[in-house]
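A reminder from the course coordinator: this example appears on the midterm review sheet, so study it carefully.

Given structure:
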């Protein structure tokens, strides 16, 4: 799985945008975009959820994917975990094979 910075770079390049253009669209300096992509940020400098949402909108990307790669839990997921910690605790203990089976069963209806 790519890091947040790697994914941001891939999405930006796929859109044919420069770091400067993305920075302008998201309201930050292009040097900050460069630091994100090259993983040169201190923890305190990590992008806020709002900035990640702005970059996702500019890139027409899945905001939840970017939030999760930045290790930020999207608000709807956070609320659901708080409402049902028992379910998420059980789900977190499952192996990948079991999770895949559950997801298949859910998709099948």
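Designed residues:
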């Amino acid at each position: 799985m790519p890091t947040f910075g790697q994914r941001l770079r891939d999405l930006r390049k796929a859109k044919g945008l420069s770091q400067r253009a993305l920075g302008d669209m998201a309201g930050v300096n292009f040097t900050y975009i460069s630091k994100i992509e090259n993983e040169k940020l201190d923890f305190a400098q990590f992008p806020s959820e709002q900035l990640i949402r702005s970059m996702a909108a500019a890139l027409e990307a899945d905001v939840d994917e970017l939030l999760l790669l930045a290790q930020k839990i999207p608000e709807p997921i956070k609320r659901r975990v708080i409402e049902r910690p028992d379910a998420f605790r059980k789900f977190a203990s499952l192996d990948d094979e079991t999770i895949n089976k559950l997801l298949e069963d859910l998709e099948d209806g």
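The chain has two domains: 4-72, 76-108. The first helix runs from residue 4 to 14.
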